[in-house]
Amino acid sequence: MNWQPFWLTVQLAALVSTLLLALGIPIACWITYSRWRWKFLVEAAVALPIVLPPTVLGFYVLVALGSRSPLGRWWESVTGHTLAFTFEGLVIGSLFYSLPFAVQPFAAAFGAVDRSLLRASASLGHSPLQTFRRIVLPLSKAGLVTGFALSFAHTLGEFGVVLMVGGNIPGVTRTISIDIYDQVQAANYSSANLSALVLLLLSFAVLSVVYGINRHPWTVGPWR
Question: What pTM does this model have?
Fold first, then answer.
């Protein structure tokens, strides 16, 4: 088994899930508490990667990162190379691809918080940010853990988006799913089986930890 694609994939998944924790919480908070009548359009846009073929999403991300796009031209002027077919491009594509797997559990957890607690906090003079930090976030720990783990596990196994955006560059963009595909194409089934087994066990372990943690009640207290 070639371990380089495996560690590259773990690095990608860890970075993407961490970024989605930072980006997904504000988006989920807005979706949960906004009263804008058209917010369902934002919800649909966030959920779109669930139903959109990965090659379609990957194609449009590739166009957005290409040298003809404003973002691509700016990146090339700063770094001297294009954003497509790089690890950074993989990160951006994976953020879009795994976004709903983080935002939806976050939003569900925020929406499950008793609104009377929020009103009580406001009546005590706490700002919305203080209420969110001291009440909503502690009561939503299970949802945050679930969203983080699902986005991590989802990024581990992605294929179409990373192939479209990053190609198949050893040590740079060749993830374990692409490596498995290459091994099968080369009729190296024993190596493909080992890589697939490692990926299966890792994904199973991540999900087992999440379900195991969520079986136990969280201790909720003030966050200082």
Answer: 0.86
In a domain, 203, yes or no: yes
Minimal CA–CA distance to 159: which of 18, 5, 2, 4? Answer: 5
Written as six digits, the tokens of 52 are 């959109």
CA 173/CA 195 separation, integer angstroms: 17
Question: Does any domain span residue 219?
Answer: no
CB atoms inside a 10 Å sphere around CB 30: 15
CATH assignment at residue 10:
1.10.3720.10
Buried b vs exposed e over 111-134: b needs ≥16 C-beta within 10 Å? eebeeeebeebeeeebeeeebbeb
Q: What token pair was written down for 180?
A: 């498995």
Write out the residue range of the structural domain in which residue 103 sits.
3-32+43-214
pLDDT in tens, the chain (224 residues): 778 889 999 999 999 999 999 999 999 999 999 988 899 999 999 999 999 888 899 899 989 888 888 888 888 888 888 888 889 999 999 999 999 999 999 999 999 988 888 888 888 888 888 888 888 988 898 899 999 999 999 999 888 888 889 888 888 888 999 999 889 988 888 888 998 999 899 889 888 888 887 776 544 444 44
223: Cα separation from own chain's centroid: 25
Structural domains counted in the chain? 1
DSSP character string of 91-148: HHHHHHHHHHHHHHHHHHHHHTS-HHHHHHHHHTT--HHHHIIIIIHHHTHHHHHHHH
